[in-house]
Amino acid sequence: MTLPIQVSRLRERLWRAVVDGDEYSAVRIAHGALAEGIEEETLLLDVIARVQEKVGTEWAADRISVAQEHAATAINERVVAALAHRPDGGPYRQGHRGRVTVGCVDGEWHAFPARLVAEILRLRGWQVDYLGAQTPTPHLVAHLHRTNPRAVLLSGSIPTHLPTAHAAITACQAVGVPVLAGGRAFGPLGRYAFALGADRWAADARGAAAALEAELPHPDPAAVRHIVDDLPHLADQEYTMVVQSRGTLVKQTLRDLEDRFPALREYSDEQRERTAEDIAHIVDFLATALYVDDAEVFTGFLLWTAEILEARSVPAVSLVSGLDALSDRLRDFPRTLNLLREGTTALLERAHSPAHGPGPDLHV
């Protein structure tokens, strides 16, 4: 059997095990693959990681429940742990290349990508301090002072954590440790990683290993930049004002939507809470787009949200109305208004694209 076919079949078997919640079968499949000669790196990145991607895709399409998604992710994490701690797995995990730290941006709960990176680096001879999910920046810096690693690998999946990532990048560099950023939060080709001053960016675990092997430049602590120097557009204070008024914006927008959609007044407490959460996410992504001065952060989130809503048979109409309501509240902020207009345009174009048919009139 050729390797691609073998890997494809392994994915199918592991997928069935994790979606069924069968942890023991999943672990047996992984150990059996190693016994059949599949390399551990291939198993981690071309089988387990791909299955985890499918978990996210199937949840977004509403083909598996939130509970199934959580269970599948937990099982994949246990499979990775089982591989890392098997009795014969020690000789090539001695860290002869040097010491590095791997962790997630503060607030980032999606730790699975970082865990995969940590395991790949261990396989390739690095001593890895894996700090897991949402590592507070002060504690990260304290760890660096204690361990003096060659580099920090900072993972982020949700773009709303980019401002926090910026602070972490700057803090690590201030103590002389270079930062390698990775994860979807940092945008296509790592555009936000570089905008926020990261020393390197990697698209995946193999890329991260290659970047470390090529050596990262060591930052000069005396040349630490200020955030406004990195991002001069923040001088207009729009990002700060939107963040500080977040709670008020959510409440006011929810109230405005009741006038636009009288049916919202009949929502249950749970439905109103979910609607408020959706508005809060919109405000958070709007603020992040202001921070990096890039509309794609905001429009990408809106289009993804529209897909999620429609997969659950929820009309995406309220998204545009929500943006209209926010525009009324933020009329004195020109950059913010421009982002809201671009978001509205993206949603309207999507609704009337051939792939979605003529769609509803989003200005109802």
Protein traits:
single chain; 364 residues; alpha/beta; Methyltransferase, Methionine Synthase (B12-binding Domains), Chain A, domain 1; Rossmann fold; Globin-like; 3 domains; five-stranded parallel beta sheet; 7% strand
If you had to describe this structure to a student in words, what would you say it looks like?
The protein folds into three domains: 1-89, Methyltransferase, Methionine Synthase (B12-binding Domains), Chain A, domain 1 (Orthogonal Bundle), CATH 1.10.1240.10; 92-230, Cobalamin-binding domain (Rossmann fold); 235-356, Globin-like (Orthogonal Bundle). It is 60% helix and 7% strand. The protein has 16 helices and five strands. It has helices spanning 3-19, 23-35, 40-60, 66-84, 112-123, 137-147, 162-174, 191-195, 205-213, 227-230, 238-244, 246-260, 269-292, 295-311, 317-329, 334-351, and strands at 98-104, 126-132, 151-155, 179-182, 200-202. Strands 2-1-3-4-5 form a five-stranded parallel β-sheet, sandwiched between helices. Helix 3 runs antiparallel to helix 5, helix 5 (112-123) crosses helix 9 and helix 14 (295-311) packs parallel to helix 16.
